[in-house]
Each structure stands twice: as C-alpha cells, then as structure tokens.
Design brief:
This is PH domain-containing protein. It comes from Eutrema salsugineum. Keywords: Coiled coil. By secondary structure, this protein is of the alpha+beta class. It has a domain of 102 residues: Pleckstrin-homology domain (PH domain)/Phosphotyrosine-binding domain (PTB) (PH-domain like, Roll), CATH 2.30.29.30. 27% of the residues lie in helices and 30% in strands. The protein is built from two helices and seven strands; from the N terminus they run H-E-E-E-E-E-E-E-H. A seven-stranded antiparallel beta sheet has the order 4-3-2-1-7-6-5, sandwiched between helices. Strand 6 and strand 7 form a beta hairpin. It starts with 23 loop residues before the first helix and ends in a 17-residue tail after the last helix.
Length: 190
C-alpha cells in the first residue's frame, strides 16, 4: 500500500526521521506532476458526472454496433452490395428526449453524431449476420428524412427488440408537423 504513495525518485520513510532535500528543478517537477494529476482528476470527475447525467435522463442507452449509409440521390447508380464489408463500429447510443445520440464511448462528453426522432421516417428489422467467433448479430435500421440510414446490431436479440419497440413508440408519438389549417402533413413511421 505504501508503494502507491511513493513519488518517483523519493523513498518512502515511515519513521519520519530522514529529510529529503530537493533541488528547485525537482520541486518544480513535482509541482507540475501534481498539477497535471489534479487536472486529470477534474477531467475524470467531469466525465463521471456527464455519464451519470446521461444515464439518469436517458430513456434507453447502451452499446450497439453501428454503420451508416446514405441513400442514392436521384440519377445516381444504386449503392454497391457491401454485405461482405465489415465496417460495424461499436458506439454508445443514447435515446434522450427527442434525440438519438451516438457516442464513441460512454465516457465521451459530446456525441459524434445525432438525429432527431422527428427526422426518422422508417424503422425496421434487418437479417441477422454472423461475425467472427460465430457470434450472431441481430440487426435493425433507422432511416432519416435526409436519406441517412443507420444500421444497428447487437448480439442480444432482446436489446435489439427493446431499441426497436422504444424507437417505434417514441418516433410515432412525436408531434406531427401541423399545417396552418391544423391538419397534419401525413408523415408516418413504418
């Protein structure tokens, strides 16, 4: 246990009888290290508080494997079949309020990407696939009105089913855009 508190270049003395003399450079180095450690501690506390806040206010959160695709624009050739390309990346996904956030890690302070639930035009299941080590991944997709398609997967069918049911419920319950006459524009989520 005492080794945890031993500063580099300084022996731990338990009886307090020995004096350690430091040069000005060594003292400044120790002060700098202490300052760096305090800064790191403050950063880690901020991360922890952020994760705590996100998890408390999130409707659903967890790690999913994600890949994104853009829909072909009019006049473009259809996208190539890239089923053999393994470009699934683990992301920490958070459903919070009316937005879906994609973080690289659960401890990140800001998301890498996000989409509004109101922008989701289609949700659905995708066929399962098998990755290395014979892990079966269950999949679903989220299509936005901008043409961005998020493909999501997990080894847990229960997790995929939870995401699908919550997203379908939440994206349907989003208030529809109202026209000046009070009628809706008729947009629906499948």
């Amino acid at each position: 246990m005492l080794n945890l508190f031993t500063l580099r270049r300084l022996p731990w003395v338990s009886d307090g009888q020995e004096k350690v003399e430091l040069s000005a450079a060594e003292l400044e180095s120790l002060r700098s290290e202490l300052s760096d450690l305090e800064e790191r501690e403050a950063y880690l506390k901020a991360q922890l508080e952020h994760v705590d806040e996100v998890l408390r206010s999130a409707r659903l959160s967890g790690y999913l494997f994600i890949r994104s695709r853009w829909a072909a624009l009019p006049g473009e050739p259809p996208p190539l079949d890239d089923a053999e390309v393994d470009d699934w990346l683990p992301r920490f996904v958070v459903l919070q309020g009316a937005c879906l956030f994609f973080y690289l890690l659960s401890t990140d302070l800001s998301p890498q990407d996000s989409t509004l639930l109101a922008d989701i035009v289609e949700l659905g299941s995708l066929p399962s696939y098998t990755r290395e080590f014979d892990e079966t991944h269950h999949c679903f997709y989220i299509l936005t009105r901008q043409g961005l398609r998020f493909e999501c997967s997990s080894t847990s069918k229960t997790q995929v089913d939870s995401w699908l049911s919550v997203l379908q419920l939440d994206s349907r319950s989003e208030p529809e855009e109202r026209l000046p006459n009070g009628s809706s524009d008729g947009a629906t989520v499948n």
